[in-house]
Amino acid sequence: MQTSADRQDRHQYPAHWEADVVLRDGGTARIRPITVDDADRLVSFYEQVSDESKYYRFFAPYPRLSAKDVHRFTHHDFVDRVGLAATIGGEFIATVRYDRIGADGMPATAPADEAEVAFLVQDAHQGRGVASALLEHIAAVARERGIRRFAAEVLPANTKMIKVFTDAGYTQKRSFEDGVVRLEFDLEPTDRSLAVQRAREQRAEARSVRRLLMPGSVAVVGVGRAPGGVGRSVLGNIRDAGYGGLLHAVNKAFPENLGEVDGVPAYRCVRDIGRPVDLAVVAVPAEHVPAVVAECGEHGVQGLVVLSAGYAESGPEGRERQRALVRQARAYGMRIIGPNAFGIINTAPDVRLNASLAPEMPRPGRIGMFAQSGAIGIALLSRLHRRGGGVTGVTGVSTFVSAGNRADVSGNDVLQYWYDDPETDVALMYLESIGNPRKFTRLARRTAAAKPLVVVQGDGSAPPGHAVRATRLPHATVSALLRQAGVIRVDTITELVDAGLLLARQPLPAGPRVAILGNSESLGVLTYDRCLAEGLRPSRPLDLTTGATAQDFHRALGAALADETCDSVVVTAIPAIGEASPGDAELAEALRSAAAAVPGKPVLVVHVELGGLAEALSAAASTAPAAVEKAPGTEGGAHRPADRPPTATAEAASPPEGTHLIPAYPAAERAVRALAEAVRYGQWRREAADPGKVPEYDDIDEKGAARLIGELLARGEGLTISDAETCELLGKYGIPVRRALPAPTPDTAAEAARTLGYPVALKATAPHLRHRADLGGVRLDLADEEQLRRAYAELTELFGKPEELRPVVQGMAPRGVDTVVRAVIDPAAGAVLSFGLAGAASQLLGDMAHRLVPVTDREATSLVRSIRTAPLLFGWRGSTPVDTPALEELLLRVSRLVDDHPEVVAVTLEPVVVAPHGVSVLGATVRLAPPPARDDLGPRTMPAY
Hints:
Number of helices: 29
Oligomer: single chain
Strand content: 15-25%
């Protein structure tokens, strides 16, 4: 029987259902529950819907809503009757509702688990993916309220709505009766529904970034009347880059008779611009930004780049100002880069947008760059600019985004854009923090399978202004998970650029075998040593001597590339003195022609004090931006740069099609480090093509484990279960734990040993001694009662009373290697499986390997082999190899347990003794808690503000 409190809870407003979403065309909308206060909005919305759409919704002419209709559609109990609305600017653009029904099709309450669902989308917003987004959210709400199935009746002519249902990916049935199509579908997410949802997410978020990076018109708001200042500088940068769209200057302080600024049409406010504006660059003080956002929203601006500071980076007051900014922009369907941003750049020839504080436009190329910090963005651009053979030809910049506080658009959004951007071959990212590690890892894995992704990751502490989900994982663990996802993790900006230039210019190496040749024996030996340190397999360096000619280099490189035992070549070069010594251009051409004759293997050059060699290898004369011709404003006075004829510099920047530019490095360690990262990435790409499978085990009792977990959780919100309960739960997944009996006295210890059978082990389990055999709290191979009692006396004499030691007696396991297996569900990253050797040395060195759950058979194999102490498992120095297949099966079973039951939030198996035949789990702890929310399984949402 329901209490009054229960009935009140049914009517409580569910604020957690509110969400911002990105629509199919890249715009945004807000989804929220419909309440009694929405009567006027509902009537206004309905008046803007066409008669045809009304007919499709109600199966009859229905020109207006009656008072009874309005009451029914705005009064919900948020359990059996729920309505959601999609809004832009506070006004409804679409609605969806469900009504719980029983087996007879009549209104019902729980435990009935079916509901009828119906949509209505304003005609002006049809085709934007609004109904698909609403379906995801109403389905999630229904699942939360115990509804497992939706039914919908649709007229056959309403093909758009039928497609919304059929394309969603749910398991469904379809029937036709009385001229109506009836669709029934289960709401449990399926692999197909998740795939559909993520594909829609990728397309929508990519388009939202594309709208920012490829605007047809730009307004710079906050352009100063006098030269200088942020707004005036950005206006000049856009103009000087040769932007191909319409450009406008805006400042409310402009005199009314001012027609233009620096040749760009000038306006006092965005509303005065008599044409659409796609992007607004905001450079006004923070207190004036809300008024600018309102103007932009009312004018239909699609996105904002907010350069203004004074937000979350400045403290609590600024943080609230930032939240208000995001909420205001999203209310108008706009996305934001920033605030406190450095800006954006797109070098595509039909765009040429430099809406940033960078005074020069980078040369067009194939590298995408993302930085959260403006200072780091400057450093990245300047390093590429300075590198002779850096930003030239195929290794220039395609797009650059510096997101500042990344209150809205983040690295995840830019990854979605780069994934299928044909202009970007390599992605470089400097991430001071990762706001959603679970999503970033998923997107990174997909992106890395198509193109290299190189990341410098901050130390784990979020800088001021960044909203970051709390994670309990150490920084090193997050880094390991990124590497598992195919991310090339480097430590510095220099390494980021070094790796990016190699990956953009050269093919991936097929393996770790490296040929080294050059005209310096010492530099060749140094390169050889660095290759060994990076885990590569170098051949002995070929010394061409200091008298080598360009032809000598050409022959040696050609021979090395043709050698089937070589996967890549490092050429070392130092200046030589003499008439026969090759010049920079001659040597560069010799190397390029040799590499072109035998393509498919990467070539790198280590050069010392050869000022012109890097430039010659890049096949470009300069990294400076090409000249831009300016022309008077056209098309209604809007500024549009004139078409520019190709310049000699631009032509030189583009090598013959199909050729690879050879990257040059000033130090051997930098070249080898970049090559090693390319080798590891190439290996990951090959393995990612066959990631393995999550095996099934016939002896796993998933339902029995679920029942046991439910019974245990009924006792409390979160608890570490007892040893007996742990053994029972793990046993249902085929993970036996060797029995240990408490021994509070010598007599009970002797009785326990008789029960278990000799030989036995006596162990102290007090927290300060548990799993610390090095402290002497363990006695092994006790063959009889006399030895057991003597060991008991030694332990109590050394460490204190039995109640302090908590001794236990356990049967001896076969000798082997002690290891530890852990699994934890992190609120930000998800479920993580960890493995390492047991003992203080491994803990001190942090020698643990990690994989995201669920783990495949191939991942379990690599997990065991990826720790530095792995040789101890495989017969190191004549020891007997242990049963690693049994260890891998144990890892897979633990992975299945935490994947099948998210209530299992932590598992520790320590020690796990891996013997030559089989494994023995000697200790285990399990912690249960209500499962954390899985936003990656729920409907698409933008980060909440």
